[in-house]
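I am still getting used to backbone structure tokens and would like to learn alongside you. To get us started, please write out a protein record for me. Once you have written the record down, we can walk along the chain together.
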Amino acid sequence: MAKLAIETIISVILVILVIVVIIVFLPGNLWALAKDALGFGDEIINFGEINNKSLVGFNILVDKIEDCKLTKTKVCGCDLDFSHYYKTHELQVSENEIKLVNLKEENEVTMSKEDISGLNCYFKGNNVNSLVSKTMNPLNILFYKGDKQSYYIEDEGIFDKSLDFVHRFELINNKGNVCFLTDEVKDIKDLTVC
């Protein structure tokens, strides 16, 4: 009986010793392993890198818009790449300019802007020859709905609309009149690249 009690005490002491060694010498590694195993890993976001990527994307976007505006004789579509932007970014398109804005809590920081006129519009109706909706308010192009990447326009006009980019092209050039193409237009089957 005494032998069993001594073996139990020695076993408990060994287990405690192993636990103490693990806690003392491996706390960071143990916590990291536990977080990964439980799915609590911290995502480190490098906003400097994200903002640099968005600035490069903005310059490419402006060049593509300018190229799209060159066609004056046909109806065609232009593809824009919105994948460079993060949920803190927004494009603000007004009558005379387009701005890349970084939204930080309650503040807006303009990261870059370019003079481009007449782009604060979108096509609406059944096809690309439909009406153009011009707005006096800036069109805000956002890139996330919640945590899901999704490209859409918020038109803060009279009706506060959210218009999704769902087609192959994000811009339509209708013989020199360049506007955004959203889910407002249903039929673009005959639309070709500018």
About this structure: The helical segments are 2-25, 27-38, 47-69. The mean pLDDT is 76. The longest helix spans residues 2-25. DSSP finds three helices and 14 strands in the chain.
